[in-house]
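QUALITY CONTROL LOG
STEP: pairwise intake check
CHECKER ROLE: data steward
CRITERIA: each record must contain a sequence immediately followed by its structure tokens, with no blank fields

ENTRY 1 OF 2
RESULT FIELD BELOW
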Amino acid sequence: MTVTELAILVLNPGCTLPSADLSPHFALLSSRQSAWSGYPLRFYMQGNKVILLSGWTDVPAHHAWIASEGNQELLKLLLPHIGIDLMVHLDVPF
């Protein structure tokens, strides 16, 4: 059974979405992660929070993505602009 990833990202003070600086990084995250996992990546905004939802075949598949070079490159682009408030796996199909 698939698992659902739920992450809550918080924009750092002074950062906004959409923006010319940050929006391309989120678009790249969406395309790379979706290609890796085979599941769409959804973003929802609530104030300064970005709620991220996606599916994975299992938790180890997500951990492999987290450790991948492609994801590590994205983290270097995104972490100056965001904090990770929450990241959990829900035992529900995506």
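ENTRY 2 OF 2
RESULT FIELD BELOW
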Amino acid sequence: VPSATLRGRTPLGVLKLALTLAWGIWRARALLKETNPAVIAGFGGYPTVPPLLAARLAGIPSVIHDANAVMGRASRLLARFASVIALTFEKTKYLRAGDRSKTRMVGMPVRDAVLEEVTPYRTRSRADAFSLLVFGGSQGARIFADVVPAALAGLPQAYRARLKLVQQVREEDMQRVLAAYTQAGIDAELATFFSDLPRRMANAHLVIGRSGASTVAELTVLGRPAILVPLPHALDNDQLENATRLQEVGGAWCIEQADFTPERLRNEFMHLADSPDAMKEAAKAALSLGEPQAVARLADVIEELARA
């Protein structure tokens, strides 16, 4: 189904947008007639606009689900037309007061592989090994390859000796990161991809990562404390808002990328390594935001609309 973003304010851009959306709505209405769905569900992004507008014209109920603490631009456009707005965060930025009456808190659905790893947080003593997991999305993140090795290599020997590190590293950064940890005598397992990432998250005392919707949802379902470095320059700063929500309840520490230096990370790590009770409380706070039943709750919303 054709769609387009709402960017561009030139007359030609507006005309092209209008024609593309009109064609997309026409195609979507044809598909709705062919498939005759009881409910339409949209999960954000501009490709959802024509189908949900077509559903409104056809009198088919719809639900939009927003995964972030900031309502996306497409969701904002569609909110007034949707039957239900399913939210992940109670405090969702840009949600209009007039639309709040049709919101439902369902949480962010997570994979079964994550739910299977839900176990109590393992509190450590200051003398125990410290399990640290670092990852930055499906392809890793260069900022972590630049900052984390320098931060950890500068730790006093007593901290380095207890550290058990697992880090996702991009292929082009692998050799230099490995060399830094080898020289520092740090026990590190590096890979470009971990197929068992949920298990590794569950085994970690602390996670360092970005704060996309899926990462934050998985951390809260598992109940694992994290240092979160939001992706900068993201549209509407959704990752910063996600990290802030988790930090507000005490479940994470948010460091913006401009402030994410080896010195800052080293100091944060040493403080947390010396504060196992604070880590335990952060794990508990993260868990308080988790919604392991998000899939079932969202399915309930859809079934209710279908029966209405």
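INTAKE CHECK: passed for both entries
DESCRIPTIVE NOTE, ENTRY 2: The radius of gyration is 22 Å.
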